What we know:
This protein is an alpha+beta fold and 598 residues long. It has helices at residues 4-9, 178-185, 211-215, 217-239, 262-272, 274-277, 370-390, 396-400, and strands at 31-33, 37-38, 43-46, 52-58, 64-66, 71-74, 80-89, 95-105, 127-137, 144-154, 161-167, 190-194, 250-260, 281-285, 316-321, 343-348, 410-415, 422-425, 440-443, 445-450, 466-471, 475-486, 493-500, 509-517, 522-529, 533-534, 549-554, 559-560, 572-581, 590-597. Strand 24 (509-517) and strand 25 form a beta hairpin. Helix 2 (178-185) runs parallel beside helix 7 and helix 4 crosses helix 5. The chain starts with a helix and ends with a strand.
Amino acid sequence: MAPVIACFALLAVPLAxxxxxxxxxNDPGPFYPLRVGHTGERYDDALPAGADYVLRRGRLPAxxxxxxxxxxxxxxxxxGAFALxxxxxxxSGLRHPVRxxxxxxxxxxxxxxxxxxxFRAPGPLSVRSxxxxxxxxxxxxxxxxxxxxRLVLPDAAGGPWPLLLFHRGRGFDEDSYRxxxxxxxxxGIAVASIxxxxxxxxxxxxxxxxxxxxxxxxxxxxSASSVVEAVSDSLLDRSAAPxxxxxxxxxxxxxxxxxHSRGGGAVHASHQRSWELRLRxxxxxxxxxxxxxxxxxxxxxxxxxxxxxxxxxxPSLVIAAENDGDLTYPIADQLIDRATGPMTQVxxxxxxxxxISDAHAAEGRARISRRSEQSQVADWIVCFVRRWADxxxxxxxxxxxxxxxxxxxxxxxxWRPSQRTLVLEDAQDGDVDHNLxxxxxxxxxxxxxxxxxxxVGDMGSLGLRHVxxxxxxxxxxxxxxTGGPLDASRHVRLVLxxxxxxxxxxxxxxxxxxxxxxxxxSSWYRIHDPVSGGLLPAWDGRSPHDRMLDVHLPxxxxxxxxxxxxxxxxxxxxxxxxxxxxxxxxVRSVVADDxxxx
Length: 598
């Protein structure tokens, strides 16, 4: 999660990324998810600044209004998922629609379904495929690109279908992912897999212009992003043309970009331009982070364009392979640190870089089968696309809640902007003595604010930090003071991201959380114990990288200490994290981040 201020910094970006750029045909308008709200609580959010907004279709919940400058404010009186369309007029006079989504829950979130729908098995629809050869013009450098596109389509009545544009990785072809794409299409999602030979070379051919791949790899990924954009425009135009064989197949209102490996780097470039590209969501699969390359740091070295530290708010899903033999450093992991919109990051245990394809040999130490890896990747993609194409809030517990705590298959962490989110510590100030609200105190441990990411590429320029807690005694504690009595009565959970250094997993350490109120009364929550278990997985050293995952601690499940009435949540004074060493022979640090009330 990026520092809270980053969310507001994005509101200053102009609506038109390319001044004077023509709007795409059949323009559905940019997509913008507002922060989650709760009934009976003050709400205040805003669309990107720089335009006049007028509501055209749909409605906000009773109690909220939208001003001409894009500010959404009030006190919502009804819960639900709300979709609306506004007309935005820019200073240049350009007018276009803007699609807005808002989820409002009841104050106690009793209407948040605690379900985890699974899409690991193929869906109910049969599928068909066809190949296209398209000539498109890349907006990156004006090159005319001839690209093969493999369409995998639901073979059923219905539609138009959500359209998932997919870009291959380096060394792969557009048809290398047939089983994955058929699995996705069986749930009513059209997939267009793009070859794009111009961007980077593969095993069976040479790129037509090797400067993209051999000399400046980031240019190949930014070029690939523009090729995906051009292909999407072509397919949507054909889908809107009566008499075309593709007529009526694709929904311009539900457009998603996905990419694998360097194709994931292309997704990052598209995420940077997602407002302009009218995207509902982006899916990174074992991706490069473009900030690995110093030449994209603003103002960037031409012909590259800048990649900023904070992402636009467009929803995103990141899927990493725990034992990735290609991206052997956790290059995908820091994407969650820069999220300003809804993001879910999944690390599949035992997965490797290449088994997402149908035939490529494994890179790294695969601990699961190709079929298992593909089905898990498809499962998360279908879940994400359905959530944002249909605004299906029944999937929120899985994507943004505690639905996968202690999961033996994957580590899951997420960021979901909410009006009530209160961050206690994100480590971004580099000050070990203060958190965002009050003081940090330690007993029996060493606390440092460092980056958990390896010193490769240009990652250090991001300035990202995490809290490293290294026990010096068998029982140690980290206290976060609130800076005064804090009313957390409207919050329902305490959330934090955790990982652990070393390759022994959580076998040697127990973790407890404690709430302290202004009168000294306390309540406890056992997060994990090596003997009795808990919310953390029993990792067994399968990877040199222990990945971050979220723990969600319901405040109603904290229990009072013996002889105590329990902490008064209207007057909290501190939050404690206790570390208990169960194996004194193995000293390792706990890495914590984004500790917050939700």
